[in-house]
Structures are given as C-alpha cells and as structure tokens.
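Model the whole thing, not chain by chain.
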Amino acid sequence: SGGSGGGSGGAGAHRLAFVQGVAGDAFYITMDCAAQSAAKAAGATLTTQGGQKFDPTMQTPVLQSVVSSRPEAILIAPTDVSAMQKPIEQATQQGIKVVLVDTTLRDPSVAASAIASDNEGGGKAAFDAIKQLAPNGGKVLVVSVQPGVSTTDARAKGFQDAVKADPRYTDLGVQYSMNEPQKAAQIVTAALQKDPDIVGVFATNLFSAEGSATGVRQAGKQDQVKIVGFDAGPDQVKALRDGTVQALVAQQPGKIGEEGIKQALAALNNQPVTAKIQTGFTIVTRDNVDKPEGQSALYKSSC
Amino acid sequence: MKLLEARGLVREYGHVRALAGADFDVDAGEVVALIGDNGAGKSTVVKLLSGSESPDGGEIFFEGNRVRFGSPTDARELGIETVFQDLALAPHLDPVRNMYLGREIMRPGLLGRLGFMDNAAMRDGSRKAFDDLGATVLDLAGPIGSMSGGQRQGVAVARAAAWASKVIFLDEPTAALGVVQTRNVLDLIRRVRDNGIGVVFISHSMPHVLEVSDRVHVMRRGSRVASYRAADTTMEELVGAMTGALDGSNGAEK
Amino acid sequence: MKLLEARGLVREYGHVRALAGADFDVDAGEVVALIGDNGAGKSTVVKLLSGSESPDGGEIFFEGNRVRFGSPTDARELGIETVFQDLALAPHLDPVRNMYLGREIMRPGLLGRLGFMDNAAMRDGSRKAFDDLGATVLDLAGPIGSMSGGQRQGVAVARAAAWASKVIFLDEPTAALGVVQTRNVLDLIRRVRDNGIGVVFISHSMPHVLEVSDRVHVMRRGSRVASYRAADTTMEELVGAMTGALDGSNGAEK
Amino acid sequence: MKARWARLARLQALQIVLILLFIVIVFSVLAPQAFLSGFNMRGIVVNTSILAVLGVGMTFVIVTGGIDLSVGSVLVLSGVLAAKSMAAAGGQGWGVALLGAVVACLTGLACGLVNGVLVARAKVPPLIVTLGTLGAALGIAQIITGGLDLRDAPEVLVDTIGFGNLVGQVPNLSVIALLVVALGIVLLHHTRFGLYTFAIGSNPEAGRRVGVKVDRHLIKVYALAGLLAGFAGILNLSFFQSTTIAGQSNTNLNVIAGVVIGGTSLFGGVGSVFGTVVGLFIPSTLQNGFVILGVQPFWQQVVVGAVLIAAVYVDQARRAAAQRGTSTRTSLLTQLGLRKESS
Amino acid sequence: MKARWARLARLQALQIVLILLFIVIVFSVLAPQAFLSGFNMRGIVVNTSILAVLGVGMTFVIVTGGIDLSVGSVLVLSGVLAAKSMAAAGGQGWGVALLGAVVACLTGLACGLVNGVLVARAKVPPLIVTLGTLGAALGIAQIITGGLDLRDAPEVLVDTIGFGNLVGQVPNLSVIALLVVALGIVLLHHTRFGLYTFAIGSNPEAGRRVGVKVDRHLIKVYALAGLLAGFAGILNLSFFQSTTIAGQSNTNLNVIAGVVIGGTSLFGGVGSVFGTVVGLFIPSTLQNGFVILGVQPFWQQVVVGAVLIAAVYVDQARRAAAQRGTSTRTSLLTQLGLRKESS
Ligand SMILES: Nc1ncnc2c1ncn2[C@@H]1O[C@H](COP(=O)(O)OP(=O)(O)OP(=O)(O)O)[C@@H](O)[C@H]1O
Ligand SMILES: Nc1ncnc2c1ncn2[C@@H]1O[C@H](COP(=O)(O)OP(=O)(O)OP(=O)(O)O)[C@@H](O)[C@H]1O
Ligand SMILES: [Mg+2]
Ligand SMILES: [Mg+2]
C-alpha cells in the first residue's frame, strides 16, 4: 500500500485492475474495452481478470489473488451483495481503492464509487417491449438463469411487477434454465404444451433466450410467441436479426467502464468522486438495430 | 442331537440348482470330510451354514435348535468359523489387519473405547499364529493382495483357527499350501478336533481325507449321496461314490 | 540348446526379493516340475517367463536366442501359454468368451473383418475342450465369476492347453480340481509332452510331481537350489531340498 | 448360447424400460392431452437425442471402468471449430455443412485420443485426465471465440438436421441419434471390439495376459467417446444454432447419470447401450412431465431427485429378484474378491 | 510394523507434497513479492479451508468405493436452515451462532443418513443416490428461501470464524479446518472405524463374512460426510455471509478431484486424508498463481488442466518407481482378479 502512495504523485502510471463478474461475456468485454481505452488515455495500465461463472465462491479467490498482485485501484463487479463485502473490505484495508461496476454491495460505502444499471428498470423495459410486440395482451413467461443471481432476479422481478400492474397480461411465473439452452428449450416446449396461447417470453440472459427460441421454433410458434432478451451482445443481435428474438434490452456497459476508470483515477488523485451513478437502457428491435441509436447500444465481442 | 445339522438344503442361482435338498451333519469333536466333484455344491453348503448366504429351502439346526442365519455374524456368534474357498480377504490390508478384521484387539481403557487398536498385540498374535502353521508370511505390513497364493491361504486358515469355538469349516484349506504347511494344517485339524470342536474339511485329496477325517460325506449334483466312516472305506469307494460309478450310494452308513 | 532357458533371474517387489538370481530351463517334449515352499518364487518365475512382468535382472533365452518379453503377447507369439495361479479370467464374461479371449474365431468374409465373431464355432470348441478335461462347466452363458473354484480352473487349463505350441506353464493347475479332473489334467500333461511341447508343472502334490514329470527343479528363497531326474529321486529327498533340511543341494544333477 | 446371452441382456434392460413406461403412464393419466401429444413426445425425444449420442460413447468408457468428464467441453470445442471453418468456407449448402461435420468429428477424435493416451499410456486416472481436458477444451474454445458463441451454422444444417422431419413428426435429429445408438449396440454387444471393452472392465490384467492390447483398446474407446462428442457438437450446433459455450457444464454429469441409471456399473465390466438410452429418457421425461403438470420449479428438482432414486431402486430390486440372488444382490460377482457389481 | 505402515503412508503422501512444493517454488520465483506475501498465502489457505472440511468426509466415502455428489447442496441447505433459525432466534452473539452451528450440523447429518441408508440398505448406486439428494437438497433450500440467498450470519460468526485471525495472519477458519483434518487423519488411519472403511472399500464381501457390519458402517461413513458438509455450511455462511445457493454447483467435482489428486482410488480401498488436503491445494494454488502472473482467464483453464494432469502423472510415476513395480504400476493388486488399483 506504501507503493501506491508514492505512485500517486503523478497523474500517470497508475496500476489498475478490473475483476469482471464473469469472464468472456460481451457485456463485460464491452465494459473492459471502454475501461481499457479510458485507462490508456489517462496513462494508466489496466489488467483484467474474471471467474468462470458469475459466482462469489469463484470470484473471492480471484479477487484475493488480484489483491496480492497489489494494484492501486480495483474495478469490480461483485457477484453477491453480501458475500463480496468482506473480501472487498480486505482490499480497501490494503490501501487499494475500489470502484463497484454494474453490481453493488450491501454496504457500498467501502467503495469510492458505485456505478450500476438498474436491473429492475430493465425488467420493466422488457415488459414495455412485449407490450409493443403483442399489444393485445395474453400470457407471458419468464425464463431466468437460476435463482439467487441478483441481477437476473431483479430483472425478473421488475418484469413481473410490471405485468401484474397491467390486467391484460397474465404472469405465468419464472422458470429456470440453469443456464442450459437444452433445459430452456425443454421448459418452453413443455410450457407451450400447457399453455398453448403464450404470447411473450422474457428471457433474462443469453442462454435462456437461445433455448427459448429453440423451444418456440420446435413448437412452430415463431409468429405467435414474442421473445424479449436481455443484453445486446453479438449473439443476441444475430438472434434479433434472424427473428428468433424480437427485442433486446441493452444496458450501457461502455459507459459503466469509462465512468469506472474516471472515478478510480479521481480517487487515486484525491479528486472528488461521485458515490453513486446509475446508467440507463436502450430497447433494440429490428427496426432500430441498424440506426445509430441502436448501433451505439450494441455490445462488442472484442476491442 | 448333532452339533450342527442341516436337512434338505436347497439353493438356486438363477436357473442353476446348486443344492437340491442336501443333508449335512457334524458332531462336536469329530472331523467330517465333505467331498464331491467340482460344482457338486460343497462350497454352497459352507456358504449356507456359515450364514454368508441364505437357503431357498431346508432347515438348519444348531445344538438341536432350529436356527436362521441372517448374516455371517449370526453364525460367528454361535462359534462357527469358516475358511472360504475364495479366502474372503481384504486385499489392500496387511496380514495382521486381515487376521484380526472384525475381532480387533482394542487398547485398554478410554483409548480403546475411542476406537484405537492395540497394534502391537495384534502383530504379536498374528506372528505366533502364522508361525504355528509354518506359514511363510514374510512381510507383515504389505497388502495381502500382493502375497503368494499359499501365503494368503495361510492367513485365512490361521484366522479361522484362532476364533473357532464350536465348528470350523475349512473349504479346501490346503489347496495352495506347501508340503510342510499342509502337514501343519492336518495336524491343526486333529488338534482342534481334540479340543471338542466340530471340523468340516473339504478337499479333493483323498489321502488327506482318509488320513484326517472320522466320517466322510459324499456330495453329487447338489445332494449328499453317501456317508461313510473313514476307517471303513477306501479311496476307490469314495471316488466311485463321487463320480456316480458306484450308484445307489449303497455304501452309505445311514 | 534348451527350448526355454533363464539365467540369474532377479525380481524385487519393494523390499521383498521374490527372485534372487534364479535359473530355469525346459526342453521340448519334457515335463519339468517346479516345486518349492510357499513364497519360494515359483509363480514369479512363471510371470517373468510368460512376459506378464519384467525381470529386474537376468537373461531369458528361447531356442538359444536372447529374448525380452515386453508383454504377454510377445511370449504368446513364440508359442508360450500359461495357466496362472490366479487364473487371469475375466469374471463378468462367460466361459466361452474367456476360453477364446484374445483368440476369437471371427465370422468368415466381410462380417469377420467388421469384427463379428463366430459364436457357434466358439461354443462348440469350448464344449469340446471342457469335455476333454471332464470339466463340469454346466452353464456356458453365465459369468465365470459365479462358477465354482474347480469349474473356473478347468476353463483356465482348457484355454492354455488349446493354444500352446512350444511351452506351457501350469501354475498349480489342479489345486481346485476334483479327483477325476486332476487325473485328466495329468493325462493332458503327458499328451502335450508327447506332442513335443515343453511342459512346466508347478504343484505342491509330490505324488503328482513324481508321477508325471521328467525333471524336477526345486526352488528355495528365490533361487533354484536343486534339480533332479524324477526317476532318480524320492519324495523325502524333494521335501528335504524344499525345506532346506537337506542343505547344500547335494542331490543336484548339474 | 447366443439366444440366452441376448435374452439376459434384454431381461436386464427390460427392467428399466418398465420403469420408464410406468412414468410415461402416470403422466399420461395425469395430463393425457398435453403429455401424450405427438408434439410433446417429439419434444422429449429431440431433447434427449444429443445426450444419447454422447451416452453411447460414455457407456463404452464406463464399461471399461473409466469415466469421461470432458464430453461437454469437447462438444463445445468441436462446435466452435466447425463453426469457424464453416464461416471461413462460407455458404449455406451441403458442402460447407459436410466440412463442418468433418471438422467437428476430427476435433472430437483428437480430444478423445489425448484422453485415451493419457489414461492408457501415462496411467493417469481417467477422472483427472478428463477433468483436465474438460478445462483445457473449454478454455481453448473460449480463447478462439473470446467466450462469445458462434452462430455460423449453414441453413441446410439447421433446417434439415436441426429441425427437419424425416416423415410426419419423426425428427431427423433423432433418426441420426437412433442410428448412432444402433451402431453402438451392435459394436458393444456383438463385436470383438465390444467384447474387449467388457473384458478390460472386468479384469484388465487378465485381458493383458491373454494378449488383448489393453492400452491400445483403451485409447480406441476414449477416441470413440471423443469422436461421438465431436459429432454431437455438430448436431448441437444445428439444433441450437449456437456453440452454447457456457451451456454444457452439466452435460457430463447428466450423461453419466443416464448411463448409471441404465444399469452400467461404474466399476466396469457390466453395461448396455440400450439401458443408457432408457436411462437418459427417465430424467428428461420427468422434467417434461413435471413442467406440464405445473409443478413449481424448485419442487421439480426435489421430485426429480426422489423419483430418480426410487426408479433405480425398483430397477435394482427387480433385477436382483430376477437373478434370485436372494441374500445379497451382489453375491454373484463378489465371490472371488471382486468388487461390488453395481455402482 | 506400525512404524513401517506409517512410513509407507507418509511416503505415498510425500510424492504429491513434493509436487505442490514444486508449484509453490515456481510461482515464488516468478512473482516473489506478490505470491509469497503473507496476505496471499493466507488467501490460498482460507480459500481451501472449506473444501478441506468437505474433503475429509469425501475421502472416507471414496475409500469405501462410493461417491458423494451431494456435498455442495447439503452445504447450501445446512447454511439455509442455520441462517433461518438464527434469524428466528435473533441477535448477533455466540448463543445464536452456536444454535446455527448445531442446526447446520444436524441438517448435514440428516442428509448424510438419508444417503447412507439408500446406499447401504436400498443398494442404490451411490452416484444415483447422491445425484438425487443433490437435486433434492438444493430444491428444498430454494423452496425455503424462494431462491434468494439469506444473509443472516451473526456478526460474531463473520468477524471471528469467517475473517478473524488466531494470531497474526493465522485465520481462525483455517485453524478450524485444520482441526477437522487432524481428526479425520486420526479417525481414518488410526482407529477401527478407519480400518473398517478401508476393509469395505477393499472387499465388502470379505468384511461382511468376518462380521464387519458393512451396511451400518457405510451409513456411518455417509453420515460423517453429511455432518462435515453441514459443518462446512456454517463455515461457508460465516465466510461469505451468504448461503451461496447458486454458487456450489462445482463444489462436488472440485472436492472429488482433490481427493483423487491426493492419491485416493475411486475403486476404494486406498487413500489418505492428508493426500486429499494436498490434492485440494494444488488446483487452488495454480489458480492463484496464474491470476497473480496475469494469465488471461481463458488460458488459465487450459494451463490448470494441463498442469493438473502433469502433476498427477508425475505423482503416479514416482509412486510406481518407489514400489519398483516396473512392468505395471498396478500389478501389485490386480493379481487375484482385483481391479485397477488407481481409479
Ligand atoms: N453365485 C453363484 N451364481 C451362480 N451359480 C453359482 C454361484 N455359486 C455357485 N454356483 C453354481 O453352483 C454349483 C455348485 O457350486 P459350488 O461352488 O458349491 O461347488 P463346489 O462343490 O464347491 O465345487 P468345487 O470343488 O469346484 O469348489 C456350480 O455349478 C456353480 O457354478
Ligand atoms: N506383486 C507383488 N508385490 C509384492 N510382493 C510380491 C508380489 N508378488 C509376489 N510377491 C512376493 O514374492 C514372493 C514370491 O512369491 P511367489 O508368488 O512367486 O511364490 P510361490 O512360490 O508361487 O508361492 P505359492 O506356492 O504360495 O504360490 C512372496 O514372498 C510374495 O509375497
Ligand atoms: Mg468349492
Ligand atoms: Mg505361486
């Protein structure tokens, strides 16, 4: 920690680290790209790590190892609001500045700044998309990843709350794909068997959307069932263009990453920081995907 | 009243009838030989009377009372010990552990009650038992699965002999043993018999059978077909009864 | 020039010295008995000379040429077949599959080349081989692991006898066999010898050894300590040599 | 003898078929229209098809007494390389589809060979080898793709293999899987290759001593499992139009469970391909049925778990009764120091 | 003899310790300050502690020739019930913490008993039983919580057990785990209970015939594994302040891998608790070192997989050489129709 004090004399040469929620996800890659270029512009170096799954039991050892390599500041997307609390506190006790990106902690005050998108709002936005696509109302289903993931749970909750507020729509509840497309396909196939008149499926992440689309296609109900996915990675966009998914709720990972670096550097340079920053959403459909407004919302697969 | 008696034992494996109503009996202080061709059902009799498998039919009497063996433990509690033809050893364990498996000597006092064993006592006991047999077990700490055939059989025999108090079954106990060890086992059989224990000796060696046993039961195709006093019979007669050359089991004593 | 000869074989297992420079030889058309106390190293000699394990020292010659067996297949290709003491059977397979394992009869033509076997031919071949031995294998389709000890041994002997063309090792082949089957195996040994095959016969039964063999090698503690012409020796002499009572191996022929 | 042998095998497999039938009947009674519809049946069959292809290879591996945890990753890597090469070749026709299939199969084969060599020659326990290749294959797939799924499945693949029907409601995907299963049954139960597989699982040392080239055969068995995983990779790509990189983490366990439910012993020497297929259908039928019945998702896991144990229990009990090994189910093969037959 | 026995056990375990040491040395050279720092060492040890507690129970189960896939779920369910009961009791003191620990242990014990009874009495293969209870326990945990992690760990638990130090950089969590490991070593290698565990894994029928109550002992072994999983549940809750419902899906495989790396055979009869602990440290040290070295996440999987196989290969080769079983590593125990010694 002494080293970081010495290094903070100049604006440049800061050593930063970014711990993703999960490695190899377009959302975090986009965030990483933006963060990398922001860091470069400020003359800082940024190393990136991430667990294999969005899982605190995997992220904790990664964070601990990153802390051991002694960066001056860490950008992290905590995978659990309370499980990551102490490990992150341990990092700050080592004199490392922390910025929370995308997700947050039970007590975010340990961090210099917290930048996040509002997932419940995202769920609500997804319902808005369904209302556009199936304006006559009907039954809607949520296919989520697995219980207990704060982001997807919040999306599902935001969606369900919005459905309940609108009497024309019936909420069929949440089914969990366990992040397996096969399982999502099975679920949607069976659900269509039970309720042949489903009009919309909100799939809270990529695999759920993919499997749901497969299930709908198996049932030959592509025209009847509208699928709204979350995030706008290349996969989701291709699905959108192919027509297997009819709308996407895009977050703003680039903005989060850029802000994250900005806040971290400000903290290191003893400049004022913003404690809490909320970012918004864009709904991407086939109509706007090729327009600038849609294009700028899409995620990247590499920098 | 016989010490251990069985009547009409039946045991089927799928469509194979291993025992088709076999009778058997042994008295205290006698050596009964059980002979018969391969597959005649000798080992099956042993498995049923040692509680290691259950009969599909027939009755078993111990000291005149009808008994049912739910497990080998039931038979062992009556003082019945067995050397199985397949030896029933735990190959990864050493000879000492095998010798005392299920009969461990525990440390005295609290340590013993906590499950700690008296390894020194068990080692000494085993050493003595093996030496008595002349068994050539060299390495008391190696896994028994790596020992020679005769060494393994020696351990199995020593184990059964150590614990038998009423009946001991010896299913081909000398098959893999050397000349000296075989002699020692035959002596052991006589010694055990003289202590009033009933000995059941299974062997394909007619000279050994005639040398050591008091009575001989002959089995063929899952039944006892004849029974002789050893003193009154000859090798030829026994072989005849086993193979069925001498049919009608005319030589049977009862 | 001997058919198969070994000089100074050494084999160690951890700290146990199973063979400490053992010599061995067998000629075409003779029966050599290999005897010794339990743990003397007989089976280890068999394992080394059948290619199933590699020696730590010593040399092996086949028809005068130095050979090294990397695997049992190398030995089999020279016409050496073995009945191992542990039988080396696959317990889940039936007797026919075990009899022909590694030597399957394939269907003629394309089907055979695709890997289809001629099950009928193998069944008939096994039936005949078992009958020749008088082996009491009843159920040709049951797993061999469920058969009686003697039935299993019968299959192992029949298998080795069927394929041997130069040398056959029989490691206690009659240990579990009935009286009749034992006689048949002894006859088989003579028959095989008369066909010019070298037979190595391991047994703890001195009468059988003296009856069937031409020469007797005696092993003690991992070495060959004596070698006799069977015609010129007696049981007492053999037992003496095995146990070391008769030390100095004075009776050795060479 | 052949008839008997076959009859026995059939008898064993039959037990578990009865249980599957029982499950089907229960759901049919509880939700006749929904469950028994051709559409639903087709759905169950299609969703089990890819697992069945993997199950064939896994059965061979487990019969030798081994295990293969890497199938899911190998499937992913094969799909990734196939997608990459098809994208490089371009086009939507059969030519490029064939290229993809060949690349996928070769990739799988290569991974299987690596597994086999490490198991057979380096003598590393199969669990460790395939755990290692599980990580390595997935890692390579992620490095190649940056972790993002590829979707370059030519249309013919998706339309014909993925979603086409041979006739009526008979999906091509399942017909292909059925062919693989049929070949697997013949190979395991009727050829020398299968015989050696059983022999190695029963007693590798005995096999070695009678001249079976145990090492080489093990390599072949793992290579076969890899090849089938590669083939499953192209099927998976056709069906999901995606390489499903992160979506196969439970595939290995699901397939292994199917194999064991089907009566194959993890200790080797005993097993059947047909049993495996039935074993794979049991969990997927349960899953489907409970969704149709509207069982809550959390409860589904509980119920599937309980029914799974119950099904295998009934199967074991019936099988034991059929053998009349009354005292111990395993007595049959434990006689000479052998291990527990089952599990 | 005792000295020899112990020496042999030590010799076996030593091999793998050397490999761990080698890995540590390599990282120390490559990144001396970061890797060798007290903070980092403490991190590695802490992150392996909970797995070690599970590994002790798993070693017993695997030595009997069984397997337990349910440990992760049982850990979660125990944590959930503990959190629920602590929340109901209220407060942040030792009393409520003790209540939680008792509830967690009892929950684990109950799950273990269910596993044991189904394996030992109903004779269902352990893989299926524990796959079933894996789903069932997780499902029940989710039903109770609605799928949302509970966070009701009293402060004393978190501050003392989860993150407290005994002295300096010696974490309480690891001290507790070390105690469990020490007890496990004594129990497995020095008591009759352990002897029976080995005997059952070596030849269950032999055990039965000499009067070992095999069924009852198996139940005890699975119960022990369950109890330890329950205890790990309360440790996990203290450490993560969360029931990590969704986070334990790979725990079972990680623990099993540690056990096998440590030299325990999946076929039973052979194994050591000490080896398991070392076996668990190898992957976690590799993971840690590669993060410190800044290896890309995807590459880490590839490298960890490769190094894992290499480590176990070297271990096997050294062990074989130590036994001087030159021709076949497994010859030693395959003599009488026994199975492959190592998995
Ligand atoms: N577990 C089993 N499963 C199927 N068949 C069996 C089983 N045990 C024994 N048998 C059959 O029962 C018959 C009698 O076997 P048993 O072992 O009692 O014979 P035995 O008289 O001891 O023969 P041996 O002298 O060869 O030892 C044999 O035909 C055998 O194949
Ligand atoms: N795989 C092994 N590991 C360790 N020791 C072994 C192994 N195989 C044999 N031995 C030891 O080597 C010695 C010789 O064994 P071998 O089996 O050759 O004896 P044998 O002469 O065949 O005896 P028997 O008449 O009892 O069959 C014995 O002391 C035995 O314990
Ligand atoms: Mg018998
Ligand atoms: Mg021998």
